[in-house]
């Protein structure tokens, strides 16, 4: 039997890289006066091919390539498909919302695709040095995209803040890699798992884990490493925020799962209580701060901090139960958050002349379908049944209860009720009838193009599927969770949360 070629292990990344290079070369070849919109479609086609390649990897035998630096499992495929789907929707959104004469439009599409390369590689790397490279590829692209609107003061400010704080976080992560190498003599995830528990300097291992967690928790904007989030979300273009708030977060949460459950399972008694505290801080700080916001993007920034806390609650789950719950929540949050930022982009405009909550007043009457879609995503973020948000929270909190963190689940439920206040406030404003025709005409009716309609349709469909018929995604998440186990580790004990995942496939 012939071994699987290593190139097959990174086929989605290869396709995305070639797509980004093609976009850049074509952009440089076109005359300045020619439109760059076809380059966006090329990027979308390349991303679709990468998504197909990710699904094709399911036919490969599970294993590693390139001398044990990357691997292909159902876990990596799950997040590859999720990331490619997010990037595809973000590209479709930008096709109709970027002005035709916007600055360096071709570079925008190339940066989005190159960022996707880093995100995908981040989920499949099992060598910490490769993880660092993937993290930098993703981060550098998003740093530049955050400052894309150079004609405004807020966008460059957001990019500078994101870059400076992100560099500090990356330094912590890199220093953690150096310390774990000093303690174990390896930077390979599986080797670290077997060597960390017997390392002579156990304190060095604990400090290394702490350094790694600082770098990762910054990227997912979990409290108390969330300071950058509101300013960056407010200053960056809305299509960029749609990507920034979902794609890098999904990839980084996949990295966090790998680091904790594969590299440091022996330190579970240390990192589990720490994440318990971080989850409570993130939920509470995010929701309390969101209540005070009048700017929609800042409100959603604090909302994303709270949702990071909801997802971290799943880490209290036992073994694969917690991994599957976190994976499912990442998918549910991505679907509804990309969709709501698509609506925000259409209402506020590329230049964001209408960024306040009051600017959404009467949206249901100005654009009925768009207003209903906004309310739909808001109730999903609250966690109303038959939406992805409901099942994501239910699965996450169930995992926490099964892991013995009942108090954490109760805090999460209380925070969900608190979050309903600001979500419903925006929904009520959108459904409020304008007092007169002058107020109705104050904010122009959003223009919805074909590409952004497709983006909204995909987001709505994904949110509904995850809320009504989630079994397929649950099976994929559970199957991926079983593969995220260190060879030789004991299997999970039976748990009541397993009842949530119906008709699960047998553990491979």
Q: Could you list the spans in which at least 5 consecutive residues all have pLDDT below 50?
A: 486-508
Radius of gyration: 22 Å
Number of domains: 1
Mean pLDDT: 89
- What is the makeup of the main sheet? 2 strands, antiparallel
- Structural class assignment: mainly alpha
End-to-end C-alpha gap: 20 Å
Structure, explained:
The chain is an all-alpha fold and about 500 residues long. The chain has one domain. Helix content is about 70%, strand content about 0%. It has a two-stranded antiparallel sheet. A hairpin with a 4-residue loop joins strand 1 and strand 2. The two termini are about 20 Å apart. Residues about 485-508 have low confidence and may be disordered.
Brief synopsis:
The chain is mainly alpha-helical. It is built from 22 helices and 2 strands. A two-stranded antiparallel ribbon has the order 1-2.
Q: How do the strands and helices of this protein lay out in sequence?
A:
Elements (H helix, E strand, L loop, with lengths): L5 H4 L1 H19 L7 H20 L6 E3 L4 E3 L1 H24 L7 H20 L3 H19 L7 H31 L4 H8 L5 H18 L8 H8 L2 H7 L2 H17 L4 H23 L5 H18 L6 H29 L14 H4 L1 H15 L5 H15 L3 H26 L5 H6 L7 H19 L2 H13 L25
Antiparallel strand pairs: 1-2
Features:
single chain; 508 residues; mainly alpha; two-stranded antiparallel ribbon; 22 helices; globular; disordered C terminus
């Amino acid at each position: 039997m012939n071994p699987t070629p290593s190139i097959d292990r990174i086929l989605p990344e290869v396709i995305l890289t070639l797509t980004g290079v093609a976009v850049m070369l074509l952009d440089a070849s076109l005359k300045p006066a020619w439109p760059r919109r076809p380059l966006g479609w090329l990027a979308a086609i390349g991303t679709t091919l990468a998504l197909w390649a990710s699904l094709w990897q399911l036919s490969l035998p599970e294993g590693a390539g390139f001398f044990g630096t990357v691997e292909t499992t159902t876990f990596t495929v799950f997040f590859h498909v999720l990331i490619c789907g997010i990037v595809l929707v973000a590209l479709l959104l930008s096709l109709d919302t970027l002005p035709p004469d916007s600055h360096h439009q071709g570079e925008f599409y190339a940066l989005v695709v190159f960022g996707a390369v880093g995100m995908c590689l981040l989920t499949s790397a099992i060598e910490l040095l490769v993880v660092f490279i993937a993290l930098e590829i993703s981060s550098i692209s998003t740093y530049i995209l955050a400052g894309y609107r150079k004609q405004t003061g807020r966008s460059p400010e957001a990019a500078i803040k994101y870059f400076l704080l992100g560099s500090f976080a990356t330094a912590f992560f890199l220093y953690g890699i150096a310390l774990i190498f000093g303690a174990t003599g390896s930077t390979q995830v599986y080797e670290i798992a077997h060597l960390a528990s017997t390392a002579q300097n156990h304190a060095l291992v604990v400090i290394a884990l702490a350094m790694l967690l600082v770098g990762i928790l910054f990227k997912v904007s979990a409290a108390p490493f969330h300071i950058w989030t509101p300013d960056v979300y407010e200053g960056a273009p809305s299509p960029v925020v749609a990507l920034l708030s979902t794609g890098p977060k999904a990839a980084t949460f996949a990295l966090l799962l790998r680091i904790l459950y594969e590299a440091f399972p022996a330190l579970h008694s240390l990192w589990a209580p720490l994440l318990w505290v971080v989850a409570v801080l993130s939920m509470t700080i995010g929701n309390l701060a969101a209540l005070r916001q009048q700017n929609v993007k800042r409100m959603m920034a604090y909302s994303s901090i709270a949702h990071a806390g909801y997802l971290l609650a799943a880490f209290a789950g036992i073994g694969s139960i917690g991994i599957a719950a976190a994976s499912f929540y990442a998918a549910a949050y991505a679907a509804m958050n990309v969709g709501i930022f698509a609506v925000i982009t259409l209402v506020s405009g590329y230049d964001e002349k209408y960024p306040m909550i009051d600017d959404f007043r009467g949206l249901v009457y100005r654009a009925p379908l768009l207003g209903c879609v906004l309310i739909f995503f808001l109730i999903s973020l609250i966690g109303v049944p038959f939406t992805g948000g409901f099942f994501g929270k239910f699965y996450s909190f169930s995992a926490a209860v099964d892991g013995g963190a009942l108090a954490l689940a109760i805090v999460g439920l209380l925070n969900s009720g608190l979050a309903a206040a600001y979500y419903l406030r925006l929904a009520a404003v959108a459904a409020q009838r304008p007092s007169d025709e002058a107020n109705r005409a104050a904010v122009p009716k959003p223009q919805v193009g074909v590409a952004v309609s497709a983006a909204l349709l995909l987001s709505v469909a994904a949110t509904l599927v995850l809320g009504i018929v989630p079994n397929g995604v649950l099976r994929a998440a559970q199957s991926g969770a079983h593969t995220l186990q260190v060879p030789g580790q004991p299997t999970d004990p039976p748990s009541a949360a397993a009842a949530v995942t119906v008709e699960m496939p047998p553990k491979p």
